[in-house]
Amino acid sequence: MKTSKSKDAKLTGTRLPQTVICGILNPYPVWILCRFINPSLILAGSILEAVLIDWLSEIKGVDFFKKTYMVKDDKGKDKPADLNDYINEIKYIERPHWMEEANKAHAIRKKRNLVHAKLCMKSNEINEEVCREVIGYLKDVLKTRGAV
């Protein structure tokens, strides 16, 4: 597995500053203390997606921030990849070493999806404990890329 050991986590075409990562992943992020639970779950999913797009770009030698990564849907038709697809693609490429992290990445994705208005109304799953769990999972996934 290739990792970036620089001060900033390498992203194709851009950089995610280490200060941003540290601010998001410190033990008591200010946005959790201020009860910004929903935005923090969305942000965790966005960071995860950016890291996975960068990783897949590195593996395939194509900048998927500029060119849409396409996958097949259930009917065999091309569709733009989403977070689920990026997780599954990296899981397939990096198996068996990335299986645990893939499960954590899917957990982040599922919790992020609970933030939608309809689901929030029906779910008691979104709380500070879940947010801390998601941030812990994100740390574990980022460690596989040398970003933490």
**What percentage of amino acids are in beta strands?**
5-15%
**Count the strands?**
4
Overall radius of gyration: 15 Å
Helix count, DSSP H or I runs of 4 or more residues: 7
What is the helical fraction, as a range of percent? 55-70%
Strand order of the largest sheet: 1-2
Largest sheet, in brief, is: 2 strands, antiparallel
Distance between the termini: 15 Å
Summarize the structure.
The chain is mainly α.
Describe the overall structure.
The chain is mainly α and 148 residues long. It has one domain. 57% of the residues lie in helices and 8% in strands. The chain has seven helices and four strands. It has helices at 18-25, 30-33, 37-60, 83-94, 99-113, 117-122, 128-143, and strands spanning 9-11, 14-16, 70-72, 78-80. The strands form two sheets. A two-stranded antiparallel ribbon has the order 1-2. The chain has a two-stranded antiparallel ribbon with strand order 3-4. A hairpin with a 5-residue loop joins β3 and β4 (78-80). The radius of gyration is 15 Å and the shape is globular. The two termini are 15 Å apart. 23% of the residues are buried.
